[in-house]
Amino acid sequence: MPILETSVLLEEFELILRMLAGMAAGVAVGWERTTKQKSAGIRTFGLVGLGTASAAALFAGADQIDAASRVIQGVLTGIGFLGAGVIVLRKGDSTPHGLTTAAAIWVTAALGCAAGLGDWKIVGTATCLALMLLVIDHSVERWAGRRRAGEARPSPDGNQTLGGSEPRSKTGVDSVGPAGS
After folding, report:
1. What is the Cβ-side half-sphere exposure of residue 63, based on CA atoms within 13 angstroms?
2. What is the reported pTM?
3. Residue ranges making up the domain that contains 20
4. How many domains is the chain built from?
5. Is residue 76 included in any domain, yes or no?
6. CB 49 within 8 A of CB 115
7. Per the domain annotation, does 39 fall within a domain?
8. What are the tens digits of pLDDT across the range 46-84?
9. Is 72 part of any domain?
10. Would residue 47 count as lying in a domain?
11. What is the pLDDT of residues 89-147, one digit of tens each?
12. With CB atoms counted within 10 Å of each terminal CB, which end of the chain scores lower, N or C?
């Protein structure tokens, strides 16, 4: 096989690897969201990773840095609309739900862009860091909030406060908890 054909095949193989890496990063993050029964899961995150990797790969050449920069800016701005679609404020709740999933969608878009540009170190490291952050659940956030504000103590009306003015119901469930998911 001539050298030119071999080099074209290697370029095509690397392009496929870039898209697979973007999709794999999305699937990994989506898997975590699926295990927590969130509205966006494996398919959504996999498609975000694949789509952004494909968009970034279109302009991955060394002579196309300016074009790649504009594509990435557009992708990361536009993906916010998909993230906004998963954020809801349920009737009777004081905090929105879906913020963590929206942030994870945005991170997945960035991972896809990095994969599309062939930056394997960023894809691997950032995927691991994102998964580590997503493993932290609300109990850790509540624990950290109580440590900072002091231990819960009873208030005159029988409810508990978290060292400040935030009410805590008699059932022990925060009526004002951390926004997220």
Report:
1. 0
2. 0.72
3. 3-135
4. 1
5. yes
6. yes
7. yes
8. 999 999 999 999 888 888 889 889 999 999 999 988 888
9. yes
10. yes
11. 888 888 888 999 999 999 999 999 999 999 999 999 999 999 999 988 777 877 887 77
12. N
